[in-house]
Amino acid sequence: MSINRRKFLKIAGASALFGLTGASAIEELLTTNAEASVSPGPEALTAKRWAMVIDVSKIKTKEDYEKIIHACHSIHNVPDIGNKKDEVKWIWEEEYENTFPGVSDEFIPESIKHKPFLALCNHCAKPPCVRVCPTKATFKRPDGIVAMDYHRCIGCRFCMAACPFGARSFNWRDPRPFIKEKEENKEFPTRMKGVVEKCTFCSERLARGLKPACVEKSNGALVFGDLEDSNSEVRKVLSANYTIRRKPEIGSGPSVYYVIGGNEHA
Amino acid sequence: MLEKALTGSKRYWTWIFILLAIIGVGFINYLRQFDYGLGITGMSRDVSWGFYISQFTFLVGVAASAVMLVIPYYLHDFKTFGKVVILGEFLAIAAVTMCILFIFVDLGQPMRVMNVILHPTPNSILFWDAMVLNGYLFINLIVGWTTLTADRKGVPPPDWVKPLIYLSVPWAVSIHTVTAFLYAGLPGRHFWLTAVMAARFLGSAFASGPALLIILCLIVRKVSKFDPGKEAIQALGKIVTYAMFANVFLLGLEFFTAFYSQIPGHMHPFVYLYAGLDGYSKLVPLMWMSTILAIVSLIILVNPNMRRKENMLAFACVAVFISLWIDKGFGLVVGGFVPNMFERVTEYWPSLPEALITLGIWSIGFLVLTILYKIAIAVREQTASWPELH
User: Fold this and answer.
1) Which site in A45, A233, B47, B246 is 20 to 30 Å from B321, CA atoms measured?
2) Which CATH superfamily, name and number, covers B2-383?
3) Contact status, residue A69 vs residue B27, Cβ threshold 8 Å
4) Which chain B residues are Cβ-neighbours of A192 within 8 angstroms?
């Protein structure tokens, strides 16, 4: 049987196309059932919807802030690139008027106006970042945590455009040279260039029965618990204090609450 | 028919090699970006989309504008467009090709691009955009190629292609609507969160696309024996006029809503773009240039005596194209990111490698366009002496 040039090219082209997409598509179809079988270990902390309350009146000094931020960034191998353009951050300080634009007023006490607040991912009930992601690389877990799959992310940064809280960072370059060797946590993955990352509410620690690193280092200023459990610590603080959330009018349902004044009940 | 692109004058080959040289420079810079990461561009944590995504947005409009020829010709039997409709379809192919490339070079992990298909996510507008763009590319490839082949043989196009032609009409609207939805559905970005976004996209598309087509028609007439026809060019001129007015009107609506309501979040991006905010004003000269060019073009276009002079029309079209390129191919994307979610201003300006990659992709687009037009023109020059078919 002879094969002419035209026919050969047709077959070659079709097989190349299949090799690019078809083979891996079949692989994908065959393996989709495998992932649902993971269950939490016996010591894991579980919840219906994790939430955090931050009492800013209890975080007093610059050292207090640095301790909290450093705890997070060091265990998660967040690089310190040293310029604002390529910056990667999971939890950081912002002044009140920047954290709550549109809510701030010129006549409020100076002490509050320029008071640093902690900003981080709000783990929204209806996260816009999850809605826009074209590959499900960012997704909402059943416990309310908005998580990231660094191996699926294609780096389109649609989630960064969608996040109403500026909580997401992109690896504009290889982050690994900017992780101090002594500080690298071998138990948590480092990231590669070209993917998005953000706070995970320390899902890896929760799985081992530990509270988030920032909560642990906060001397009680950060409270973490289940929003759907009326006996949880967060619910107790929420029922005893007036709290605010960032941009609630957007309807994304942030799970991070702020106590501004602070009192004995907090 | 492809062989027709392999024979040409010295001028043709010079042009091809200039384009190839620019593509080469762009490709080398893309390799640098591939190695270093997107940090090689001017984008940042605060302005996380830049030149690439804005070029993509602008070019989706150019691609969609082919519908402004397809509707009159195929739906209303407007014979005057008989010769230019293929130029419109081929322009759409070149534009969509550039769109897809601009999305590709914007990816942080381009090797994973197939994840969009492997993990289809219908709630993501980007997923739908990928679908409709590729669909539009195929529709135009099939329609353009089939009609041109029929033309060369001197027979009417086959019947099966008609439904595809009709499908291309809503499909063209869909590509730009879906692209607008990328922006218009994001809750935290005041500048983009507007119901008229898709309408304004279509308005600007139907001005910038036909404006480019008029310029291309005039070039084609100069470099070949193929004449798209004075009447066709004038009819396109009217389309540009109406669409440009619609676009400016819709932009005016945005200004009204922002400044009459006095809601700070709505005003800030406009203030940043046109006056500067907190002392940052990098884009102000560009935005005013866009405004002035828009006004100048409208004065020429609305005046029939001026519009009928082809050199005046050409000037107006260049003005329309540059004006809309600045507005949509630059300001629209950056304005959405300034100020950031903390009311702070971070400015954006493309880096040199970013600009060279962008230029490279435009050159790929023009290379595709040149080859397709060369084929179309060769067929038309050949059949020009034949008696009328229809």
Assistant:
1) B47
2) Formate dehydrogenase/DMSO reductase domain (1.20.1630.10)
3) no
4) 109
| CB nearest A87 (choices: B38, B45, B340) | B45
Which parts of chain B sit beneath pLDDT 70?
Answer: 384-390
Q: Please report residues of A whose CB lies closer than 8 A to that of B48.
A: 157, 160-161, 170
Cite the DSSP H helix spans in chain B: 10-36, 51-64, 67-70, 85-106, 115-118, 125-153, 161-184, 197-223, 230-261, 264-274, 284-302, 304-307, 310-326, 332-337, 352-383
Numbers of helices and strands, H then E, in chain A? 10, 10
pLDDT digits (tens, 9 = 90+) for A133-190: 999 999 999 999 999 999 999 999 999 999 999 999 999 999 999 998 788 899 999 9
The reply to whether A91 falls in a domain is: yes
| CATH classification at residue A76 | 3.30.70.20
Contacting residues of A for B115, CB less than 8 Å apart? 134-135, 137, 152, 154
What is the tally of structural domains in chain A? 1
The complex scores an ipTM of 0.91
pLDDT tens sequence across B210-237 = 999 999 999 999 998 888 999 999 999 9
- For A155, residues 6+ apart whose C-beta sits below 8 A from its C-beta are A170, A194, A195, A196, B38, B107, B108, B109, B110, B112
Best mutation target, A85, A151, A246, to test chain B (most B CBs within 10 A): A85
